[in-house]
Amino acid sequence: MGIRGYYRVIEDSVLSQVISGDKEIFDIAPLQYQELDIDKFWRAIHYLLCNDIENGEPPGGYVVPVRDDNEIVPGIPVSDITLYYITAQQVKEASDFLNALDDDTLKSMYDFKAMRENKVYPLFGDEPDTDAECFYEDIYSFLMMIRDYFVQAVENGYGIIFWLI
Fold this sequence. Notes:
This protein is 44% helix and 15% strand. The chain is α+β, with helices and mostly antiparallel strands and 165 residues long.
């Protein structure tokens, strides 16, 4: 099965209430906002953009915000879900960052061997070199979906909730 990553756009004012603990994330109607599922590629995307497994520096670190500074801690009743947030301003910074990356730049940032050696999820360290191109294509595909999702969020002034389950 594996750990999957999901995004949900959220009004920035509602996000502020969630961050402060005044509103539970689970009180927000699940179908109220469109979600984006990036499957098990959340860690690989973060690693590609930040060259680190977690706590990557902004703005790349905001794309998959597995950062201590972006974790939602207060009032989470479910222990198997880890929640993070990206404010509308951080979404804008991440969106600008993604839009500035062309195909050649992304390809030059990709290091399958380092990802495999570091067992960057969803890799386990024993994948053959022949998997490198397919793995990159999957990462690239999800990055393009994230880029488009962030553009829409910026246009509407939304923040984003990101969770792992």
